[in-house]
């Protein structure tokens, strides 16, 4: 069964690599990390398949786990913070050198096989593995806090998509981590496990990561993370997400009552058709829906700030860019599921 799972993950990994590169004129920093993780995931699954077939390759589990953890940490920081802090880079260098020393001393990452813990670590190896987990959990917790602290997530719907996307992946990983930790603890103290091989947990992690890549927000491929690489690697035609984001969000274009596709396309120096294609393929929204969602979100913030105590609902509606009361009420009810008055009552 395990050999079939390893082979299936290998094929799925290859498909994901082709999907990531398909039709792309640029490879962003984020994509480099996605691609690198997919390559190591696919290669590791194939080596697992060979191992089940009797061709054992020593130490690749340890090497691949180190590299995938480092790539995962970098990926989180690039998505959430949009840069790699020097402290993180320094810790990764230290962690890698530490790993090389322990690798020379024959370190083996503990695992469960046939209901028995394999490769029980020495004291120093236990410190190394603890550091390994601490780096991973610290990165997850720090970036999770940044997701909730960053105010842009309250007004930028695209950043909200990234937030939901990252959080869903992180929650799944944390659940798998604590399940695995629970299995090791219960096996050590009570000789009881839910499943006999921790390799199942590894297969689930790989499968979830592939889903994470396949169902990523498409506009992320053309986001600000890629600009420096694109200038070197290629010249991209059409509308870039960073240009759209600057005008639509940074300059609050959606709050203008006269906002329309023709005007926005003119300001972005593209044709109306190019803007339509961009919204359809990258943002996955039509223009009217996009305006209404952002205007409703802005109106929500005004109501939460109790601006209704100084202004009427109609006045706040105009501040949010709505041309008339009926349009505002229809949009608000569609996206929030209640009227502005009911929304005010809900948090009083």
Q: Keywords for this structure?
A:
348 residues, Rhopdopsin 7-helix transmembrane proteins, Arc Repressor Mutant, subunit A, two-stranded antiparallel sheet, 15 helices
Q: What's the alpha carbon Rg, rounded to whole Å? A: 24 Å
Low-confidence stretches: 223-237
What spatial order of strands do you see in the largest sheet? 1-2
Query: What is the percentage of strand-forming residues?
Result: under 5%
**CATH architecture assignment of the largest domain:** Up-down Bundle
Give helix % range.
55-70%
Number of domains: 2
What does the average pLDDT come to? Answer: 78
| H and E order | HHHHEEHHHHHHHHHHH
Give the overall shape, derived from the CA principal axes. Answer: elongated
What distance separates the N and C termini? 56 Å
The tally of helices reads: 15
Largest sheet: 2 strands, antiparallel
Q: Which CATH class of the largest domain is shown?
A: Mainly Alpha
Number of strands: 2
Sheet/helix structural class: mainly alpha
Textual characterization of the structure:
- The protein has 2 domains: about 1-230, Up-down Bundle (Rhopdopsin 7-helix transmembrane proteins), CATH 1.20.1070; about 235-345, Arc Repressor Mutant, subunit A (Orthogonal Bundle), CATH 1.10.10.60.
- A hairpin with a 2-residue loop joins strand 1 and strand 2 (about 115-120).
- The protein is mostly helical.
- The protein has a two-stranded antiparallel ribbon.
- The termini are far apart.
- It has helices at about 1-20, 30-50, 60-80, 85-105, 125-150, 155-190, 200-215, 225-235, 240-250, 260-270, 270-285, 285-305, 315-320, 325-335, 340-345; strands at about 110-115, 115-120.
- The longest helix has about 35 residues, at about 155-190.
- Helix 2 runs antiparallel to helix 3 (about 60-80), helix 4 (about 85-105) runs antiparallel to helix 5 (about 125-150) and helix 6 (about 155-190) runs antiparallel to helix 7.
């Amino acid at each position: 069964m395990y050999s079939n799972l390893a082979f299936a993950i290998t094929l799925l990994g290859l498909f994901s690599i082709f999907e990531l590169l398909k039709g792309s004129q640029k490879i962003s920093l984020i994509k480099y990390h996605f691609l690198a993780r997919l390559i190591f995931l696919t290669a590791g699954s194939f080596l697992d398949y060979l191992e089940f077939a009797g061709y054992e390759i020593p130490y690749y589990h340890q090497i691949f786990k180190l590299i995938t953890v480092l790539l995962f940490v970098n990926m989180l920081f690039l998505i959430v913070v949009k840069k790699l802090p020097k402290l993180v880079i320094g810790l990764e260098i230290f962690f890698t050198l530490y790993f090389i020393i322990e690798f020379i001393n024959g370190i083996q990452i503990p695992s469960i096989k046939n209901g028995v813990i394999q490769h029980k670590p020495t004291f120093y190896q236990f410190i190394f593995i603890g550091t390994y987990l601490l780096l991973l959990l610290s990165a997850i917790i720090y970036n999770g806090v940044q997701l909730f602290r960053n105010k842009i997530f309250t007004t930028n719907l695209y950043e909200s998509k990234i937030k939901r996307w990252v959080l869903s992946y992180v929650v799944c990983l944390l659940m798998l981590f604590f399940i695995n930790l629970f299995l090791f603890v219960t096996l050590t103290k009570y000789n009881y496990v839910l499943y006999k091989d921790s390799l199942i947990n590894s297969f689930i992690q790989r499968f979830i990561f592939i889903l994470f890549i396949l169902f990523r927000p498409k506009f992320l491929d053309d986001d600000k993370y890629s600009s420096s690489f694109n200038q070197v690697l290629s010249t991209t035609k059409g509308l870039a997400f960073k240009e759209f984001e600057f005008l639509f969000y940074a300059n609050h274009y959606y709050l203008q009552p006269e906002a329309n596709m023709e005007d926005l396309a003119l300001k972005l120096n593209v044709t109306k058709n190019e803007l339509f294609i961009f919204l359809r393929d990258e943002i996955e929204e039509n223009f009217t829906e996009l305006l209404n969602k952002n205007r409703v979100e802005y109106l929500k913030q005004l109501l939460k700030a109790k601006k209704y105590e100084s202004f009427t609902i109609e006045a706040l509606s105009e501040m949010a860019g709505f041309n008339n009361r009926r349009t505002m009420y229809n949009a608000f009810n569609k996206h929030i599921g209640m009227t502005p008055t009911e929304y005010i009552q809900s948090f009083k």
